[in-house]
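Subject: Predicted fold for M18 family aminopeptidase, 455 residues

User T.R. writes:
Posting the sequence so we have a shared reference for the thread.
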Amino acid sequence: MKAFDMENSVWARFSEEERLEMEEYNQKYRQFLDTARTERLAAREILRQAEAAGFRPLGDYTELKAGDKVYWNQKGKSVILAVIGTDPIDRGMKIVGSHIDCPRLDLKAMPVIEKNKIVYFKTHYYGGILKYQWVCMPLSLIGIVYTTDGRQIDISIGEDPADPVFYINDLLPHLGKDQAAKKLNEAITGEMLMPIVGTYSQEEKTKPAILTLLKNKYGIEEEDFASAELEIIPAQKSREVGLDRSMIMSHGHDDRVCSYGNLAAILYAKAGTKTQAALFADKEEIGSVGNTGVQSSYFLDFTAELLALQGRTEELYLRRTLRSSEVLSADVCAALDPVFPDAYEESNAAKLGYGICLCKYTGARGKSGSNDANAEYLSKIRQLFNTHNVPWQIGELGKVDQGGGGTIAYIMADWGCDVVDCGVAMLSMHAPLEIVAKTDAYSGYLAYKAFFESK
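User M.O. replies:
I've generated the structure tokens; pasting them so everyone works from the same file.
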């Protein structure tokens, strides 16, 4: 099979056996998508699968030897898995970094309001979204609440078919003349993204009745919302798209399509000479900030702990490890959309169904905020994919002056690592429901596995 081929899709290049393996992989990926609906649930599922495969908390170890499987749980929202190689860790690691957060609507700290006997949740959107896309669709509420006495309450409403769902209303077209005259990004504002919570009450006001329902079912008071993390996401689970079933529609492909490939790769890769590390980060969609984002110290702390268990406690060893490490920044890329040709430069745009996408640079206008991978490292990754028949292509985030975006690549490059963005091309990125090709999702797994096993 030709690894780089922009004339023939991956499906056309795959053998019948490879197609069957691809379908089996995507069935498992869909199960992951439908389970890992938030970053907390994703971290929980990643740890469940890791423990089943023999990974143990780093704190359980007093020394490390080749083949040991360790994990780091960063506050239940980020995870690192590592398989120790035969080389000392300070000779460098093979790192695949992905993120498990995705665009959504978060409930505000005091979210319950009433207007004309209709109760709403007030929200604040998380990450880059097109606000008009979030109206008139069924929505779920998922997250945790801590009560006054410190108990954690898990909330999940809208996921079970028997559950009620939430809904953000829009103006009917009969009354929408003024709205239609506005720019697309002004027709629906952030403060208008208010899911309807309820309308029924025998009392003068509806809000107390809704708060009573919450107290009776979950044991939470209005004040408890101040110590909560509650997310509004589409109630729709993953579905196959197209008469040929070649694509998957779901919330959260960005970046769980790369995260699942990362997880599957480290679970099934053969242990090698280099220590393999799979990073599943939080907060990428808002700049990798906070103590669960990659700008925090936890990955460096994890690496320092690994080194200490091999008797290398001086800071020099940490710097040497990072400087000698290689990274695939596993984040999605924009696929060419023929419906909107003016946004893309076709000869450098990734195509749906043509394999994993190498993106030399991201950023915006003049490569601002980009890692801009060097030619030497790109050559090495290209040769690796060609040797192992990993379907791959080149891509970028649209025309030069059209827009842009960022990943965690530049942060890890700041540590001294060699880094290139390497992710799945997709349609409708950051929409409530996004689309990826099954062949591309599987190609991502093949790419990350080959990288982990390389020298």
